[in-house]
Structures are given as structure tokens and as C-alpha cells.
Amino acid sequence: MPGKKNIPPLKKEFPALSRKISKKAIIYLDSACTALKMKSAAREQSDFLLKFGGCAGKRSVHLLSREVEAEFCAARKAIALFIGAKSPEEIVFTSGTTEALNIAAASFPFKKGAEVILSPLEHNSVFLPFYRLSKLGKIKLRIIPLKDFKPDFSAYKKMLNAKTALVCVTRASNVFGGAVDIKKFINAAHKNGAKVFVDAAQYIPTHKENVSGLNADMLAFSGHKMGAPFGIGVLYIKKSLFKSLNSSKLGGGTVKEIAYKGGSYKVDFFKNNAVYEAGIQNYSGAAALRKSFEVLNKIGYQNIRARIQEIVQYACAKLSSFEKIRVLGNRAELKNGSIVSFICENPRFSIVDFNIFLNEYSSKHFVAVRCGRHCADLAVLNSDIKSTIRLSFFIYSSKRDIDVFCVALGAYLKSLS
Ligand code: PMP
Fold it and tell me: What is the pLDDT of residue 8?
């Protein structure tokens, strides 16, 4: 396997892989939902919690607080570098992609009649905040048609107009896999004077991204999908955008000064990332997220991609050898992502039964996959597919996982005949 020698002992880094459930080994093929957690990142978080006291943000100025401020700044700086942001100030820590999207939707200065264009692959965490704004009459929501499991670029270009304020595109679909060539979507939006939000939740964990090169205006991802703890994520905001956004969530740490002048209070809010991080933050989560980036960098993204590409191609080939199994998406493009989704065209195939079968079939293995709409109803409703069976991979995945899964799939299909 390419790059294998550079990949550290993953069983040590991911202790959950060594767990047994009812004496069965875990075959974890649901990393797109949430990845198994890295020992180094979990250790970083617990060491942080046990060592440090105080809060960051220059509220308290005693030594313990100054230490946490320094650690939080260091995590911000490192993550800015990892994703190619021009400045640490472009990094807003959030609880995850969902919070980032809610912040973006509520903070964007939509003018009357503004239109927001979403790709048809968007997760509900993108769709729902904008759906609510559209129901409140604040924006008009438009969805790009789906073509060959991708947003139709020609149709999109025709949708752009003077009212388009914001475009949201996912970098990699959590339903159909692959990766979207979003640079052309971003360039077209910019030519039209619109801003672009990129959902990179399924991309950042296994790809090297450069947000400045991409020229995204905003971009979000979640730490838990890349081995970091739950409850930490990032909203990247291009520096030049801060002056026009209005933070939706206010509180401690978001103001320069509050004064009482001429009979009323005057509040001078920060016009930078601080205004999006109201209150005490997940400092230990930020440190752990930095650690998970360090581990991935040490492994090397070329190695990670080579390994996952090989698994994606292997899975496609093995699945396609089954009668009535249809792998979704373009085979040549799927290798750019970390997901393989498929459907079974046998009407007797039941997703619910299959899930139970996967847990019960083997005496040696417990197989975890995800079946359904994957919280991305737009993608499903814009296609002729009701639900999919999704295999998703992270750095610990292996071809053996696919072999074990396919044995169970074969046995289930046989049981239907
Ligand atoms: N976008 C995509 C593409 C996703 O796959 C997910 C999680 N499945 C989200 C957004 C939401 O991420 P989170 O639940 O971590 O906020």
C-alpha cells in the first residue's frame, strides 16, 4: 500500500479499534458520521484540562489565564497555518460545522430581496438555517440542480444574478462521496459579486486544504470527523469580510468597550474573530484539534490520500461484482473523496434488516456502516434515490474492512434469494 511505511501504528493511535463488542472486533465504516478518536488528541485535551486553569481572552490577567490565552493563540495560529489561512484572526472556534453554519446564516448582512444559492448536495446543517431565513422572508433560497451526482455548473451560472448574495457549496458530499471542483463555483460567484461559504466537513479530515488559494469567503469543518474530540470545530472567515458581518451571538469577550454617554449605553463591538467567540471557549478542544492536525500532517496528506484512494477503488470494484448493487457517483471521481455509497436494486433488500444483519451475522466482527439519507435530504430529494448504504473511511480504514463487509453483504443478498 503506498505510503504504508510512513503511517504510524494506527491501532495505538485509535484505541477504539482494539475494542471488542460482545467479543467481536469492530469494523468501523462510519467515519463520515464521526471518526474514531485519536489517543494523542484525547490525551492533549485531558492533559490541558488537568493542567491549566483560567480563561483566555484577556479577561482575567493572572498567570493561569495568560497561559491559557497563549495556548489558545498557539492552537489558532497552528490551525490557520494548517488550512492556509492568511492570519490566525481568520479562525473562529465553534462547536462544529453546524454551529459555524448557523453563525454564518445569522450574521450575513442580507439586503431586501437577497438570494442564496445552495448546491443540491448540502447537508441539513446548511439547508435548514437558510430555509428558516427564507420562510421568514429574509432571503430567497435557490437550489442548484443535481447532474451526475454533482451540482450542475451550467445551471448554476444561469442562476447567478445581481440579487445573489451568498452561495453555499459542499467540498465533498457526505452522501455520494467524491469531491466537488468548487473553485469554478467560487470564481463565478465572485465575478457576480456574491460571497461563498464552503462546507468542508467531509473534506478537511483527509485532504490538505488551502483556504486562501481556494479564495473561499467562509469555510467550516468539525474536529470530531478528524479524530479530535466532539464539540470543537472551525469557521474560517476571510479577514476582509469581518467589517460587513454582524455577529449573531454576543456576550463576554465580544466588546472593546461599553460606555454610558448622553443618557444611553454605547457598545463598541470588536470587528474581528473575537465577536464570534462569545463567552468561555472550548480551549482544550482547540488544543486537541491542533494535535489531530499535527498527527495527520506527520502521516502526510499524500500518504493519507493514497491509502484512502486505494480503499475507495477496492470497495467500488468489490461492490460492483455483486448483482443488483449499484455504486453511486462517477467511479473515476469517487477516489477524490473518502466515501462509497451504493444502493441495492433488489426490492427485497431492506436497509433496516441489513443493518441488524451486519451486527449479528459474524461471530468475529461487528460491522458499523450508515444507511439512510445521511441528514442530507436535499441530495436525496434531488436524485432518484431514496436512501443509500454508505461506507466511509479515515486513516485507519483498510481493504480488510471492505472484505469483511462484503462477506456479510454477500450472505445477506443470498438470504434474499
Ligand atoms: N456538513 C457535512 C457535509 C456533514 O457531513 C456534516 C456531518 N455529518 C455536517 C455538515 C455537520 O457537522 P457537525 O454535525 O459536526 O456539526
Answer: 54
User: Ligand 1 within 6 A of 388 CB?
Assistant: no
Q: Give the tens place of pLDDT for each residue, 323-356.
A: 999 999 988 899 999 999 999 999 999 999 999 9
Tell me, using a 6 A CB cutoff, whether residue 199 lines ligand 1: yes
pTM of the model: 0.95
Q: Which atom of ligand 1 is nearest to the CA of 233?
A: 15
Write down the pLDDT at residue 58.
Answer: 79
Strand partners for 339? 392
206 lines ligand 1 (CB under 6 A): no
CA-nearest of 363, 361, 367 to 403 is: 367
What is the C-alpha to C-alpha distance for residues 220 and 348, in angstroms, rounded to an integer? Answer: 39
pLDDT recorded at residue 417 = 85
Angle at 408 between CA 406 and CA 414, to 5 degrees: 100
Does ligand 1 have an atom closer than 6 angstroms to the CB of 164?
A: no
Q: Please tell me the predicted confidence (pLDDT) of residue 75.
A: 98
| 209 CB near ligand 1 (under 6 Å) | no
- What's the grid cell of residue 273? 474573530
Q: Is the CB of 222 under 6 A from ligand 1?
A: yes
Q: Say whether 391 sits in a helix, a strand or coil.
A: strand
How do strand 91-94 and strand 233-237 relate by DSSP bridges? antiparallel
Radius of gyration of the chain (CA): 22
Question: Atom of ligand 1 at shortest distance to CA of 225?
Answer: 15
**What tens digit of pLDDT does each residue of 381-398 get?**
988 888 999 999 999 999
CA 53, CA 31: separation in Å to the nearest integer?
33
Strands (DSSP E) contained in 223-364 are 233-237, 255-261, 264-269, 325-327, 339-344
State the amino acid at position 33 in one-letter form.
C
Q: Are 139 and 115 in contact (CB under 8 A)?
A: yes
- Domains, the chain, with CATH or none: 4-37+300-416 (3.90.1150.10), 41-297 (3.40.640.10)
- Which residue numbers in the chain have pLDDT < 50? 1-5
- Measured between its terminal Cα atoms, the distance across the chain in Å is 36
Q: What amino acid occupies position 225?
A: K
